[in-house]
Amino acid sequence: MDTACKHPKVRVVAREEDVEYVECLDCGQVFDSNEFRDMEIEEEVAQETEEDIK
Ligand SMILES: [Zn+2]
């Protein structure tokens, strides 16, 4: 488990005014989606990011 999880699958676990908390279905980490901006979230999954995944 030394490889950094790219959190390919997340789900929203809580939502506050302008913050969404998401949980990674792979590693179980919970973080707010503001930190997660650069990555894809749920329906915003972009297929064209494939080349960034090793
Ligand atoms: Zn993860």
Summarize the structure.
With 54 residues, the protein is an all-beta fold. Helix content is 0%, strand content 26%.
Strand content: 25-35%
- Secondary-structure element string: EEE
Spans of at least 5 consecutive residues whose pLDDT stays below 50 are none
Shape: globular
**Biggest beta sheet summary:** 3 strands, antiparallel
Structural class: mainly beta
- Percent helix among the residues? under 10%
Task: List cofactors, ions and other ligands.
Answer: zinc ion
Distance from first to last alpha carbon: 16 Å
Q: How many DSSP-defined strands?
A: 3
- What's the rounded overall pLDDT mean? 77
Gyration radius, rounded: 11 Å
Going across the biggest sheet, name each strand in turn.
1-2-3
Question: How many alpha or pi helices?
Answer: 0
What topology emerges from the helices and strands here?
Elements: E1 10-15, E2 20-24, E3 30-32
Antiparallel strand pairs: 1-2, 2-3
Bound molecules: zinc ion.
Zinc ion (ZN) binds at residues 5, 7, 24, 26-27, 29.
